[in-house]
């Protein structure tokens, strides 16, 4: 009886997915657009179905045919680690053929072989960096425990992520919030700032300094407008914010990374 119930439940799930895939899309004007393949862009179940499909079309296939090549996949972005360029080119062709057989295709511009250049790999190659999950992986100057510098292929927050952080800070319109106290601003935006630091600051945290320095400049413009004694003296407003940061570094999450002359400082 239990097996019958399980079979009936699985059949119901398959029918539900089939109905979802075949349901027409309704445009803003009420027009119904029939669909014969794929899922609608932005559909609530689309990421789930895509992930399930790629689990069998890519993950299980890679594990069976290329167990020697570890990989990571998030949604439709994936990284496959290879030891030799010949191996990388071979696996790329095999993945392209596999996806074609599954009704998919590799993105022609985003799919590339990358050379992970460092102190041990010193060749030059057309592609020596890539972006993944908001990080840019590329050769970077690092320092070991003995204080010796070397070149390491490592991640840091990507330019695209930095651009998004800057846009988010601008959208807060801090200079226009003169009705708020600095404690109010901390309560309003600290969770977002803390999230940036915890995610993007996990590796090479100093790459976050420029975008969050923009936040300090916005806070200085907020103080410039809020307090009469600071109006007409933007430099004095910056120094005022710096004093607050030294006096109470826990007020804003990024101040705990270190403060020097009103800006951020600290070791990587």
- Give helix % range: 40-55%
What structural class do you assign from the helix and strand content? alpha+beta
The N- to C-terminal Cα distance equals: 61 Å
Report the strand count. 9
Main beta-sheet strand count, sense and barrel state: 3 strands, antiparallel
**Rg (C-alpha, Å):** 25 Å
Helix-strand pattern: HEEHEEHEEEHHHHEE
- What is the averaged pLDDT score? 86
Helical segment count = 7
Descriptive labels:
268 residues, alpha+beta, 7 helices, 46% helix, two-stranded antiparallel ribbon, disordered C terminus, three-stranded antiparallel beta sheet
What features would you describe in this structure?
There is one protein chain. This protein is 46% helix and 14% strand. The chain contains seven helices and nine strands; from the N terminus they run H-E-E-H-E-E-H-E-E-E-H-H-H-H-E-E. A three-stranded antiparallel β-sheet has the order 5-6-7. A two-stranded antiparallel ribbon has the order 1-2. Helix 4 runs parallel beside helix 6 and helix 6 crosses helix 7. The relative contact order is 0.06.
């Amino acid at each position: 009886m239990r097996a019958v119930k399980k079979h009936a439940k699985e059949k119901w799930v398959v029918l539900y997915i089939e109905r979802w895939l075949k349901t027409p899309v309704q445009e803003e004007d009420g027009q119904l657009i029939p669909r014969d393949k794929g899922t609608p862009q932005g559909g609530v179940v689309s990421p789930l179905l895509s992930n399930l499909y790629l689990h069998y079309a890519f993950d299980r296939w890679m594990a069976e045919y290329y167990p020697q090549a570890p990989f990571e996949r998030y949604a439709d972005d994936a990284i496959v680690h290879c030891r030799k360029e010949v191996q990388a080119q071979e696996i790329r062709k095999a993945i392209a053929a596999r996806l074609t057989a599954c009704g998919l295709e590799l993105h022609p511009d985003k799919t590339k072989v990358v050379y992970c250049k460092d102190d041990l790999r010193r060749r030059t190659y057309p592609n020596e960096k890539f972006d993944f999950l908001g990080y840019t992986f590329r050769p970077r100057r690092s320092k070991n425990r003995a204080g010796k510098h070397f070149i390491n292929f490592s991640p840091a927050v990507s330019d695209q992520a930095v651009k998004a952080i800057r846009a988010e800070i601008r959208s807060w319109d801090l200079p226009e919030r003169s009705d708020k106290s600095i404690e109010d601003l901390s309560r309003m935006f600290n969770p977002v700032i803390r999230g940036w630091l915890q995610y993007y600051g996990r590796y090479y945290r100093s790459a976050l300094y420029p975008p969050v320095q923009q936040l300090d400049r916005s806070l200085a413009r907020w103080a410039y407008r809020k307090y009469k004694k600071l109006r007409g003296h933007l430099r004095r407003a910056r120094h005022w914010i710096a004093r607050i940061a030294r006096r109470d570094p826990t007020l804003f999450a990024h101040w705990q990374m270190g403060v020097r002359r009103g800006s951020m400082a600290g070791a990587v």
